[in-house]
Design a protein that fits this description.
This protein is an alpha+beta fold. The chain contains 14 helices and seven strands. The strands form two sheets. Strands 1-5-4-3-2 form a five-stranded antiparallel sheet, with helices on one face. The chain has a two-stranded antiparallel sheet with strand order 6-7. A hairpin with a 5-residue loop joins β3 and β4.
Length: 304
DNA sequence: CCCCAGGCACCTC
DNA sequence: GAGGTGCATGGG
C-alpha cells in the first residue's frame, strides 16, 4: 500500500474534492461512508474511492481525501498521476475563470464552489453511466453504477475489504437484458447492453478524442441510448471537450430564465448559442459550476 | 393519485 | 428537420 499527498497550494485556482465529485459530473466514485450524494454538503466524513487499471490490466482501488490543505491518498498503485488525470489537477482554474465572461450567474456559481474542477472519467464507464442518467436523479445514477460494479465488475481485495472495478465492455455485453433490468436500469437496460456490444466489437468511445467538437458529438450519438445531451456529457466529463455544454433540464430551465435569447428552438443551435455566451473554449466549465450551484438552490443576487 | 428526474428511440409529417 | 409518444423506476 502506497500513500502520498499533494499540497493544494500547488494547484492553480485551488481544489475542492467534494464539489468536484458531488456535482453530477462523475458517477464512478463512491463515498467511504456510503453516504448519498444528494445529502446536503458539507460531507463531514472521510474519503472517496475510485478504481483504476494497472499496466498489467489488473484493477486497483484508490482512496482519496482532502484535509488541512492537502489531498492525500492510499492505493496499491502510484496514484498521483491517476488523480492528476482523473481530477484534472493541472487545469488552471484562475485562467479558466479569467477566460469566462463576466456574468452575474456565472460569477456567483464560481464563487460558491471555488476550487471545483471538471473530471476526466474513463470513456467507456463515462458512456455507460451517462446512458443510465437519462430521466434519472443524480443519487440513483450513482446507485446504478454501484450496482453495475458489484454485479459485473472484477473484485479488488484491499485490507480485507472487497471493492469492484467498473465492468468491462465484454462483461456488460455478456449480461442479459433481464439481468440489467434487475439492477433497476429500466428501459436503459437494452441501451447499456447494445452499447457495450458495440464497444466490445472494437468501437472505442475514446477514439474520437482530438476530432473537431461537432464531429465528435455526432460520432458518439451512434451508440444506442446516446443522444446529443449524453454525447455532450461524455465529451465534457471524459474526452476533454471543455467547450461542450450539455442541455439537460436544469440548463434548459436556466436558459429560459437567464439567457432566453440563447433558446434557438433546437439542440444544436441552442447549444452553440449558450456555448458562445459562456465564452466558448471553457463554456463547459462554466456550465458545470452553474448546474451545481442551481441544483443546490443557489441563485444570483442581481440579474444582468 | 399526481409529477418529475443531467433523454432517447421510434414514429409520423 | 420538427413534433409527438412510450418508456422503467423511485421519490416527493
Amino acid at each position: 500500500m502506497e500513500s502520498g499527498q499533494l499540497p493544494m497550494s500547488t494547484l492553480p485556482g485551488g481544489f475542492d474534492l467534494q464539489s468536484t465529485l458531488e456535482s453530477g459530473q462523475s458517477y464512478l466514485w463512491w463515498r467511504a461512508d456510503g453516504g448519498d450524494y444528494d445529502d446536503e454538503p458539507p460531507y463531514g466524513g472521510d474519503a472517496w474511492y475510485c478504481t483504476t487499471t494497472r499496466a498489467t490490466g489488473e484493477p486497483a482501488a484508490v482512496r482519496v481525501r482532502q484535509r488541512d490543505g492537502v489531498i492525500e491518498w492510499e492505493s496499491t498503485v502510484d496514484a498521483e498521476p491517476v488523480l492528476r488525470d482523473r481530477l484534472r489537477l493541472d487545469d488552471d482554474l484562475d485562467a479558466i475563470r479569467a477566460a469566462t465572461p463576466d456574468d452575474p450567474l456565472v460569477e456567483a456559481s464560481f464563487d460558491a464552489y471555488r476550487g471545483m474542477r471538471l473530471v476526466r472519467d474513463p470513456p467507456f464507464a463515462s458512456l455507460i453511466s451517462f446512458i443510465c442518467s437519462a430521466q434519472m436523479r443524480v443519487s440513483r445514477i450513482h446507485a446504478m453504477q454501484q450496482s453495475l460494479r458489484e454485479a459485473f465488475g472484477d473484485p479488488i481485495a484491499v485490507d480485507g475489504e472487497t471493492y469492484h472495478a467498473y465492468p468491462t465492455p465484454e462483461r456488460l455485453a455478456a449480461a442479459t437484458e433481464a439481468e440489467l433490468r434487475d439492477l433497476s436500469l429500466g428501459y436503459r437496460a437494452p441501451y447499456v447492453k447494445r452499447t457495450a456490444e458495440m464497444v466490445a466489437d472494437g468501437n472505442d468511445p475514446g477514439a474520437m478524442e482530438g476530432e473537431p467538437y461537432e464531429a465528435a458529438r455526432e460520432s458518439l450519438t451512434r451508440y444506442v441510448g446516446v443522444g446529443e445531451k449524453v454525447a455532450d456529457c461524455v465529451l465534457l466529463f471524459s474526452l476533454g471537450y471543455l467547450q461542450a455544454v450539455p442541455l439537460d433540464t436544469w440548463i434548459r430551465k436556466t436558459i429560459g430564465e437567464y439567457y432566453p435569447d440563447c433558446d434557438r428552438g433546437n439542440y444544436a443551435d441552442t447549444s452553440q448559442a449558450i456555448r458562445e455566451r459562456l465564452g466558448g473554449e471553457y463554456a463547459g466549465y462554466a456550465q458545470t459550476y452553474v448546474f451545481h450551484h442551481l441544483r443546490h438552490g443557489g441563485e444570483v443576487e442581481q440579474r444582468a
